[in-house]
Specification:
The structure is a single chain. By secondary structure, this protein is of the alpha+beta class. It is built from five helices and eleven strands; from the N terminus they run H-E-E-E-H-H-E-E-E-E-H-E-E-H-E-E. The chain has helices spanning about 1-30, 60-70, 70-75, 115-120, 155-160; strands at about 35-40, 45, 50-60, 80-90, 95, 105, 110-115, 135, 140-150, 170, 175-180. Strands 1-11-10-6-7 form a five-stranded mixed β-sheet, with no helix packed on it. It has a four-stranded antiparallel β-sheet with strand order 2-3-4-9. The protein has a two-stranded antiparallel sheet with strand order 5-8. Strand 2 and strand 3 (about 50-60) form a beta hairpin. The chain is extended, with a radius of gyration of 23 Å. The chain starts with a helix and ends with a strand.
Length: about 180
């Protein structure tokens, strides 16, 4: 009786593994890995009906960090912040809206989105200080995109040299992963 139960269990496990393997292969064939397109800083990049250009990438200075991240500092968190100066140009013949809130800064396995409070503070003088600006045909706007990094997100050896790491701004993931190397 025990041999029959063991045999039945082995058959069920074998069938499950076969079905899992077939499903795995089927999904990987249906959804292949994305094609990666990499661009350089200061290079105009097509994105839907827009052209994106990263003009400058800097780490925020200590004075601006202290003013911008008072809430974080009062909670005992002392982030660093990378600020990307982004030019967005509408090259279509109609009014278009672009969503920049899904843009992500990446470095190795680390990634982070735009810090909203810092975005609003840094772009206070911009008419369209929004993560979904609407642009007329031929119109462009300049926005500062802040991305925070905290010590807890990195090994101590990485944190010491954080300003020397390679970063990339990712703005499209699938079917083409589009990134700008910073």
């Amino acid at each position: 009786m025990k041999k029959i139960k063991l045999l039945a269990t082995m058959i069920v496990v074998g069938v499950f593994l076969c079905l899992y393997s077939l499903r795995y292969v089927n999904l990987n064939n249906k959804y292949p890995p994305p094609h990666v397109q990499q661009y350089e800083e200061r290079q105009s990049v097509p994105y839907d009906s827009f052209e994106l250009t990263v003009l400058e990438t800097t780490f925020m200075n200590q004075e601006t960090l202290d003013a911008t991240f008072q809430d974080e500092h009062s909670a005992g968190v002392y982030p660093k912040c990378i600020v990307i100066d982004l030019k967005i140009y509408n090259n279509s013949q109609s009014e278009k809206q672009i969503e920049i809130y899904p843009f992500v800064l990446e470095s190795g396995a680390w990634s982070n989105g735009i810090h909203l409070a810092a975005f609003l503070a840094l772009n206070a003088d911009v008419d369209q200080a929004t993560l979904t600006p609407t642009l007329q045909p031929g119109e462009s706007c300049m926005l500062k995109l802040p991305f925070t990094l905290t010590q807890e997100q990195f090994k101590p050896s990485q944190w010491k040299n954080i300003e020397n790491r390679d970063f990339q701004l990712t703005f499209s993931l699938y079917p083409e992963k589009k990134t700008i190397l910073l």
